[in-house]
Write a structure and sequence with these properties.
The chain is mainly beta. The protein is built from one helix and eight strands.
């Protein structure tokens, strides 16, 4: 996760109708998270949600299928609506 936003961003993964908090990415910082296999096995999809700390609004990715050993890079921009996600 790469954060180009000027605020810290709290990150949550949405899966199986639930929510699990991953952590916080510092302003202009980077973090790496590992998802438990139970969230990504059998072709399940996840979405990531970012909430800037101390501000209103959030950003959510589209539904993503991640397989074991796969990587997701979510880049949060200063204008959260311009954020991008890549999966490989």
């Amino acid at each position: 996760m790469v954060n180009h936003h000027w605020l810290d961003v709290s990150v949550t993964v949405l899966h199986d109708g639930g929510r699990s908090r991953l952590g916080t990415v510092s302003a202009t910082g980077q973090e790496t998270y590992t998802l438990p296999f139970r969230m990504i096995d059998a072709g399940r999809t996840v979405r990531f949600e970012g909430n800037p700390v101390g501000a209103n609004g959030n950003v959510t990715t589209e539904a993503i299928t991640v397989r074991g050993g796969g990587h997701v890079e979510w880049t949060l921009e200063s204008g959260l609506e311009r954020s991008t996600v890549a999966v490989w």
